[in-house]
Structure prediction request, 302 residues.
Amino acid sequence: MAKTMKSSSIKEISIDRIFNAILTFILILVNIIMLYPFIYVISTAISDQGQVIAGNVWLYPRGFDMTAVKQIVQYPLFARAYLNTIIYSVSATVMVLLMTSITAYPLSRPKFTASKFLLKIYVVTMFFGGGMIPTYLVYKNYGLVDNPLVMIIPGAVSAWNLVIVRTFFKSTIPESLHESACIEGANDWTILWRIVLPLSKPVLATIALFTMVGVWNNFFTGLLYFNKSELYPLQLILRMILINASMSANPAEGSFMDFMQKSSTQSLKAAAIVVSILPIICIYPFMQKYFVKGVMIGSIKG
Prediction:
């Protein structure tokens, strides 16, 4: 009997090892597939122009050359768009955190009888929208066309963010803290700013990361509502590089075409991508632990 149990346990251990080996191999393969585009783009951006045109760059850089990166960084419209995107991303993130916290807190309080009704109204907006043209007309009537605020105000309160933060407040912050603060004479504003928000760093960091990445990658809003090139976000300039046919509308875009002739188009595309994603790549590792914890706590617990 003992021999049978021993052989069974050995067999289970062998199966576990085989499974772990297969899983490890699959994960390594997935990582290689995901990392290759980044390595290729970086190699193309810093490789010699002749090697890029000849198609000799496929993994590692061939002949170090930073010409394309320098031209992208030195181009005035690109630098302005880079600054615009930083301003839009930071401002939108602050606005979203502020408005979402103020809105989610009362919805998480059991004494607020209208919370379920209001939450259902917010959730409806996740599934139904007004459409592109009606939305444009509304923004135009409010003076948001050619206005930087169009990148910040419309997304100040998202139903998805609201549900996550409200669930976090309701399931993670003990009711005893609210009761203790009320006994000490604190009002709801004091409880929110001094107790709830300091204890909600994981979910707030998660929402901040969602918002910053979303605004940083947003080119469609600028495409619809910006006619002035000095207001363009970075991703719209990147789109101009990737779609050369869209650059014949005005003199500013014509000068951009002249600028592109100074270097390999493929190298310029790669350099623009590297420069545009660099800040997000630098920020993400520091936010990842909060990102995972915030999503798990805010969306799984009842």
Summary: Residues 245-254, 298-302 have pLDDT under 50 and may be disordered.
